[in-house]
Amino acid sequence: MLAIQIISDDKPGHLNQSKGLAEAMARLTPVHIEIITPGKGPFWKRISQSRHASAKLPEADLFIAAGHKTHLPLLALGRNRKAPTVVLMKPSLPTAWFDLCLIPRHDLKSSEPNKNIIPTTGALNRVTGNGTKEELGLILIGGASRSHSWSPEPLRNAIESIVKESTLAWHLTDSRRTPAGFLGSLSGLTVALHPHAQTDPHWLPEMLARASEVWVTEDSVSMIYEAITSRAAVGLLPMQPVGRGGKIRDSLDQLLSDGYLTSYQQWTQTRQLATPAQAFAEADRCARLVLERLQLLPK
Questions:
Q1: Which of 5, 72, 83, 188 is 20 to 30 A from 11, comparing alpha carbons?
Q2: Residue 83: which domain range?
Q3: 6 strand-pairing partners
Q4: Total count of domains within the chain
């Protein structure tokens, strides 16, 4: 059995990526997963705490981490325990220091060496497309970000149009970036409201597994990738880009071009969401590549 230790900085988004990769490996080969949390403090303290925690566990075959504060503990554990290291997202340290780096394509430069780099399409996640789809719709709301500004009225109008045109049972949740009062402005619509502060970590994956249609605001990149991974039909709710949109806009345009997403403007013309020609399973694709490159698959 493959023993994997995940080094976590306690940020849910980073841990979600690491677990997504490890759990995808478990779908290919027997795996035992442990999570190490170095805690806060100077780097030498985080390294020491990581080593102490790892020493209490069975010998690791692989270390995985995401997040700037995990990089040095990850390297220290890999060298101390003589096991390969995998970092998710572009590291702040030289990529050559890690055995493998899983980096979103939009963060890579064409001049970067790719011997130990696996380009990814977006961030990995724990969602699978194995759920039984129901007559259920899901709406996921973000908020103002570096890439998008907040305009509540066009967004509310779009949600109203979507709900009125559909016979699905609609559920909606917000995020910590959603301005206070926005959910209250939707109280007159036929949609069940679920404030994010009142949902547990399992709520969103469970709803994505069940939903046949999902609408996500354009700023919520991680939720967009989770939605398309769930194999639902996915639409983009309108948000005003800041400037030209940059790398996020480019990645969304590619997903639209590939048929994984439908823009709200397209939907107003057809009243239909695109059905992707093939499944989006990035964690599974990357898991197989990692196991093959590190020669960790059983012979």
A1: 83
A2: 2-125+283-293
A3: 35, 64
A4: 2
